[in-house]
Amino acid sequence: MPSRISSLGASFDVVVPCYNYARYLRDAVESVLAQEVDLRILIIDDASQDDSAVVGRALAEEDHRVTFLRHTENRGHIATYNEGIAWAKADFFVIFSADDIMLPGALARAAKLFLSDRRISMVHGRAIEFEEGIPIEELLTGAVAVRPWMDTSAQTAPSGIGIAARILEEQLPGNPALFTTAEFYRSNRKFNRVHTASVVSRTAVQKEVGGYRAELPHAGDYEMWLRLSAHGLVGYVPRFQAAIRRHPRNMSRQYGYEQDILQRALSLEAVDKACGSILPDGLMMEMRASIAGEAVRAAGIALAQGDRKLRAQLETTATELYPGVVGGMGWKLYRLKQMLGPRVWNQIRDGKLRSKKAIGQMRAYLASARFATDGRRR
Fold this sequence. Notes:
- The protein is about 45% helix and about 20% strand.
- By secondary structure, it is of the alpha/beta class.
- Helix 2 runs parallel beside helix 3 (about 50-60) and helix 11 (about 255-275) packs antiparallel against helix 12 (about 285-305).
- It is globular and about 75 Å long.
């Protein structure tokens, strides 16, 4: 039966990239087909070596809304995403991973928010992170036991300990909201708060800002959100819009915190080139200062781990991104860690320092003009 959203003329194009996710593909696609909106789905099999092509072709044969495309050679996820952007022509656009689940009503809720204000360029919402073995039916009905994690996430709980997702959703605060460019940027200074599986963009804006960048294989989504938000308002739906499957082959698990910071620094450079001229005054400098501070923190972690190459890379990234970082407290403490060395600093962190010499060095440094003023000396 046609939905109210369909009668208003809102349409969606959903691209489902797939690489060796045959065992998940049907669940993902069927969760999208169950959305009560006008939609098309394009499954792009990026030369999978499993049965993804068999599953994809079967889905296309079963429902006229599904189109299946297979690459003869692996092109990578960035090229696949951009192929999907080129294909899209509906009002709204979604890239949805073949290992995730779209929760009931997600696209209708996004459409309602989009239709409330033509200035909105993208919409996102909450997500449930779930592990292998969780019945899909429990996710779709909201019966799965979850626990809150941050303000935009929940995680499935071990042994069913927790609260049913549908009940938790009623208890979590929040109303649909719109964020300006500056508000969105500032809320994403420390980390990426947006779940890719929950994102819907306005297709016209998506085509205007262009595709994902090949040099950002890990943080391409973060850079895209910043680019989209530079061209309009960002809508937030305070509901569970998607369920994100956690498994060993998740791309997000291939990068640690330190690598994530390096990629986000590159993202800022790309956004500055693409959108710097239209951003509010001083906003990009705020972002640079924030990510530079995170890079210094990450350099301290690399120092404690004894990874000199990564430490130097993070240090250079921080100072090039925002030279003023060297005057901050984070930089000064980082220099203290470097002066004492990884072994002594780890002892301090663990509360096991016994060396009177090291304690004396630390006290002298903290009392010095070098620490109190600029912290630049190496």
